[in-house]
Write a structure and sequence with these properties.
It contains 14 helices and five strands. With 331 residues, it is mainly α. It has two domains: 214 residues, HUPs (Rossmann fold), CATH 3.40.50.620; 83 residues, Tyrosyl-Transfer RNA Synthetase (Orthogonal Bundle), CATH 1.10.240.10. The strands form two sheets. The protein has a three-stranded parallel β-sheet. A two-stranded parallel ribbon has the order 4-5. Helix 9 links the parallel strand 4 and strand 5. The longest helix has 27 residues. It is elongated and about 80 Å long. It starts with a strand and ends in a 7-residue tail after the last helix.
């Protein structure tokens, strides 16, 4: 049996944090060992909500790839490329936009949520509404068998499957598969303020943070507010530090829970221990990043090589698309 084709991407909107690492990257790193993986920097997608302020995108692209490689993605084991370097993404997006009913796009829950959450931005554009068509093009251009996603992205993937079915039906072909979801294991990391870790909350621990910054942020984390003295019984189930232990160091959770609820260990000591465990996890990431930063042309080279590989596959798909849509002269 051949390897499954796996496709996924991330928007270059800033440095990645531990929530991104445990929510997606850990899964990607595992998949690159087992499957035929293509991971792309979704710079066109970044413009759907940030078209008015694109100046930070080039630096964000650089940082995103640095984070990926330092975290463990290996360009020798997977294809890493820049979305806008492959013109066929835009071509297939156009083809899909011609056949996708407007009702499919307006019913997407992410569309409605983002209109509410990003009310300070002018995102009532065709590009933002048509985001699922571009996402479908990203996936189907490489005939993906699977897509690693979180549960919140399942509606987008369902639209991709619907677009694949509609294209195959309208043009009487079997060109596109219906990719399956590969659900990321739910690992929601708390930020240092107790809310979900997010750049928008400025409560994140970035993969590019120094080990001293990591220790300092952990020491500022919110703990059980009812615990005044270190020998007071704690309530670990409402403590963000304990929530992080469950993801970072599951082998220690029973010990930490017993020490906290029994008043055996104070919050300062508990956070210090978590900080050291985090630093042990992040030290190899920091070391790889430092090595990469010393080679400023390496990110560009990785993207160029990956784009060359992706382009060859994309060209084949678009030739088939044009034949199916009768956009080619007969042989």
């Amino acid at each position: 049996m051949g390897k499954n084709i796996i496709v996924s991407g991330m928007r270059p909107t800033g440095k990645l944090h531990l929530g991104n690492y445990f929510g997606a990257l850990v899964n990607w790193i595992r998949l690159q060992e087992e499957e035929d993986c293509l991971f792309f920097v979704a710079d066109w997608h970044a413009l759907t909500t940030g078209y008015e302020e694109p100046s930070e995108i080039p630096e964000n692209i650089q940082n995103l790839v640095l984070d990926w490689i330092s975290a463990g993605l290996d360009p020798e084991k997977c294809c890493i490329f820049l979305q806008s370097d492959i013109k066929q993404h835009a071509e297939l997006h156009l083809a899909f936009s011609l056949i996708t009913p407007l009702s499919w796009l307006t019913r997407c829950p992410t569309y409605k949520d983002q209109l509410d959450q990003l009310g300070d931005r002018d995102i009532r554009t065709y590009g933002f509404l048509g985001y699922p068509c571009l996402q479908a093009a990203d996936i189907l251009l490489y005939k993906a068998d699977g897509v690693p996603v979180g549960e919140d992205q399942l509606p987008h993937l369902e639209i991709t499957r619907e677009i694949a079915r509609r294209f195959n039906f309208l043009f009487q072909c079997s060109l596109f598969p219906e990719p399956k979801s590969i659900l990321n294991e739910a690992k929601v990391l708390p930020g240092i303020d107790g809310r979900k870790m997010s750049k928008s909350y400025q409560n994140e621990i970035a993969l590019s943070d120094s080990l001293e910054e990591v220790r300092g942020k952990v020491m500022r984390m919110v703990t059980d507010p009812s615990r005044i003295r270190k020998d007071d019984p704690g309530h670990p189930d409402i403590c963000s530090v304990f929530s992080m232990y469950k993801v970072i160091a599951p082998d220690l959770t029973e010990e930490i829970k017993d020490s906290c609820s029994g008043g055996k260990t104070g919050c300062v000591a508990c956070k210090r221990k978590l900080g050291e465990r985090l630093c042990a996890l992040m030290a190899p990431i920091a070391e790889r990043r430092q090595d990469l930063v010393k080679k400023p042309g390496q990110v560009r080279e990785i993207l160029q090589n990956g784009s060359q590989t992706a382009r060859a596959r994309a060209e084949q798909t678009m030739e088939s698309v044009k034949h199916a849509m009768k956009l080619k002269l007969p042989d």
